[in-house]
Amino acid sequence: MPAMGEPAISVQRLTKRYAAVTALNELSLDIPAGVIYGLIGPNGAGKTTLIKSIVGALRPTSGSITVIGHDPLKDRWALRQRIGYMPQENALYDDLTAAQNVRFFGAAHMRGDDLDRAVARALEFVELANRAGARVHTLSGGMRQRVSLACALVHPPDVAILDEPTAGVDPELRRAFWDGFRSLRDQGATVIVSTHQMSEVVECDHVALMRSGSLLLEATPNDLIARAATSVRVWRRDGTTDDHAVDDYRTELPPLLHADAERVELLQEPLEDVLLRLIEESR
Question: Which band of pLDDT confidence, cut at 50, 70 and 90, is reported for residue 283?
Answer without folding.
Answer: confident
